[in-house]
Amino acid sequence: MAETKSVELLTGNEAVSEAVLRARPDVIAVYPITPSTHIAEMLAQAVEAGKIDAEFVKVESEHSAMATCMGVVAAGGRTFTATAAQGLMYMAENVFWAGYGRLPMVAAVVNRALAPGWSIWVDHQDTMAMRDSGWGQIYAKNNQEAFDSVLQAYKIAENHDVYFPFMVTLDGFVLSHTASEVELLTQEEVDEFLPPFEPMFKLHPSNPMSYGAISLPDEYIALREDLMKSMERAKKVIQDVNDEFAKKFGRDWGGLIEVTGEEDAEVGIVTMSTIAEESEVAAEMLTKEGIPTSVTRVRVFRPFPKEVLVEQLKKYDKIVIIDRSMSFGHAGPLYLETSSAMRELGAIDTKIYPTVMGLGGQDVSYKDIIQRVKSLIKS
Amino acid sequence: MSEERKVHPLLKPVHGAAGRTADWRTQTPKIDYEKCTKCELCWLNCPDDIFSHDEEGYPVIDYEYCKGCLICVAVCPRDAIHFVNESEI
Fold first, then answer.
1. Number of domains in chain B
2. Contact residues, chain B to chain A, C-beta under 8 Å
3. Looking at residues A180-185, what average pLDDT do you find?
4. Percent of chain A clearing pLDDT 90 (strictly above)
5. A213 with B11: Cβ contact below 8 A
6. Is the Cβ pair B8, A215 closer than 8 Å?
7. What is the CATH number of the domain that holds B40?
8. What is the pLDDT of residue A2?
9. Does residue B8 sit within a domain?
């Protein structure tokens, strides 16, 4: 394990793996799938080489990977898995089980489009399909944020006011296979930031319990009400953990949302992940061209940060919401949720322009964003 | 930490198949001890083991746990067990 703080050239998958190694998991269970495969390889190698004191379970499917992780957390351990697209779909039954079962863990999902047509490239359809699974969702915009968010996600998920699992997502290939500078934290720094997991309850032969047994309607509603309350409480915990991290290590990802550029710009671009980072360049150029623009990045999609988001968005005259996924038969989920939050919280004067970009790995450059914003706000 | 009561999907082992299951019951078996011959078929067939015996060996129903499946009514060779609707009790 690295003893000194260092800056290394890492792909997103490597950055995630380096974070997981420092989080001291007890058990790792991953089934490899493009573009997340390298995470499985790196972690298996680290366990084999004795770099961390963990067990790597070579599962036969993603469904089994999540089943393994659920068992680990139910027994009071810290665990990790990674997947993408079809793998997440195959894992889906247990993704919901872990979320509704209140089993705090962290999974990295390397965003990839769903088949068919067969695609290995990025869009957000896979994780958006899991938005109601009772998991928190943090969308990283670069490799450094992927590293930092994995560590933050453990701390948030294991908080007793939260206590549900989190997925940290990174865009396939754009981040997962592209190397950029990542400042690593030392093991000592991580240990100080992320204490050992303290389970609220765990399965043990001396204290027999049943997990997720039959619930009559009244009990079922109580469970879901608790999940909803926990999601609400998580908003503060996410912000607090982000702020603590920023204070300790000097990197601030905004917590729930991140605003880049002039706050009182005329046009606000609302988007997520790497399109948000690309939008920062687009906004700068649009501002120079006389269209004052700034970017509001939704970093956390679950819980949906409607209060802080609407507070920011009502400062704009016009907002352009760029989705990288689609709810077919309706519209992009980021647009749907943002516009309903604005209506709910009374921000009804802002003109909203929804758009969908970058499905199936279509490259979205700052030029594309500039062109799209201009054509939308003219209409 | 929040003081709110937290609800998680955990169950501790309890007496009975799923705790006190009496409130699942819509129909309630009643034993006619004039007809009962203490053959114990009701005791043998009850899926929830809610029959015990009194001092004379007659079957006694534990109404805290009886779900009202009425298997006992069906198997009694002397028609010594009949049922009444919960709504009529």
1. 1
2. 1-2, 4, 6-13, 18
3. 97
4. 94
5. yes
6. no
7. 3.30.70.20
8. 46
9. no
pLDDT digits (tens, 9 = 90+) for B22-57: 988 999 999 999 999 999 999 999 999 999 999 999
What's the rounded Cα separation, in Å, for the pair A49 and A293? 50
Helix, strand or coil for residue A233? helix
d(CA A228, CA A178): 37
Domains and CATH numbers, chain A: 6-249 (3.40.50.970), 257-378 (3.40.50.920)
Q: Is B65 inside a domain boundary?
A: yes
Token pair, residue A130, equals 């899991």
Q: Is the pLDDT of residue A282 over 60?
A: yes
Residue B39 counted as domain residue: yes
Rounded CA separation A250/A252 (Å): 7
Q: What percent of chain B has pLDDT over 70?
A: 100
Residue B2 within any structural domain of the chain:
no
pLDDT reading at A157 higher than 60: yes
pLDDT at A4: 56
Q: How many Å lie between the alpha carbon of A240 and the closest alpha carbon of chain B?
A: 13
Decide which of A57 and A5 is more confident: A57
* DSSP reduced 3-state for A170: strand
Do A223 and B9 count as a contact with CB atoms less than 8 A apart?
Answer: yes
- In the numeric block, the tokens 């004052």 are attached to A292
- Taking the C-alpha atoms of residue A278 and residue A304, their distance in angstroms, rounded to an integer, is 22
Predicted confidence band of residue B87 (pLDDT cuts 50, 70, 90): confident
A347 three-class SS: coil
Query: Which stretches does DSSP call E strand in A18-120?
Result: 27-29, 55-57, 79-83, 106-111
Min Cα distance A305 → chain B (Å) is: 20
Which residue has 């997103």 as its token pair? A12
